[in-house]
Amino acid sequence: MKVAVIGGGTMGSGIAQVAATSGCQVKLFDLNNEALIKSKISLEKVLDRLIEKQKIDAAEKNRIQNNISYVNTLNDLSDSDLVIEAIVENLEVKRKVFSELETLVSENTILASNTSSLSITSIAASCQKPERVIGIHFFNPAPLMQLVEVVPAIQTSEEVLNKTVQTISDWKKVVAVAKDTPGFIVNRVARPFYSESLRILEEGFADMATIDWSLKEMGGFKMGPFELMDFIGHDVNYVVTETVFTAFYFDPRYKPSLTQKRLVEAGYLGRKSGRGFYDYN
Ligand code: NAD
């Protein structure tokens, strides 16, 4: 199967690794060449770590690496069977990419978005053939997280939904089919995890290390909310909250936090920029 991934950042790189590991021929495209170089270097490191842990051998590493090519234009993706978009979380930018993409690929190519919270129906409406558009929402880090939400738009055909569920299952992921509502299932349920933690911090009732520690020790979470927001990236996480808040007609349950907004404005995006709630330098 020929798979294209658009956006070679955190998610696109992980999704490319998942597809390549399952034997697909993957083309990874990013507007920014540096992102592609970074993605290639990071894959090398990830695979070396898997060799150290004796989870794969050198031949498997080569096979996965050889299954991915790094390309600089959308045109290079024209022979794909499935395209997964993982670019910036902005509806207008995604709609533009999808409408352009549709003119390049074959009629039968499935066009998927990895959006965390935007309307798949609205992205599909930017295409002439909206029935082939669908949401495939991986979690971070994509190679490790088992769950993938598959989200049909209201225009998506049954055939495209079935093929997508089959493909993602073939990639050894567990599929949850979710309705096209803001944040789908997991990102909607996760909003209060972040927002109540931010409120406790803002109200001065506990510091972030204590909140993180409590949720890990007592709540059984793998990461505390502040560690997780730093891991996801505040630019990504804040926009998701803003989208869910706006899409639910400004329901105060989903109100975004000014503390997080200021981090985004400062460029303190979390681990990827070296500083977020915590300092990683
Ligand atoms: P990121 O910032 O790490 O990567 C985005 C990449 O897209 C960048 O390399 C950028 O250069 C590239 N890009 C931007 N516009 C482009 C365009 N028009 N064409 C080609 N490349 C373009 O972002 P990310 O964290 O990987 O998130 C990507 C998508 O996945 C978003 O929709 C986000 O909501 C979703 N998502 C993120 C997470 C997460 O934890 N970070 C989890 C699940 C889903």
TrEMBL record:
Ranges for domain 3-hydroxyacyl-CoA dehydrogenase NAD binding: 2-181
From-to range in the entire protein, with total length: 1 to 281 of 382
Top-level division of the source organism's lineage: Bacteria
UniProt KW keywords: Oxidoreductase
Protein name: 3-hydroxyacyl-CoA dehydrogenase NAD-binding domain-containing protein
Domain 3-hydroxyacyl-CoA dehydrogenase C-terminal stretches: 183-280
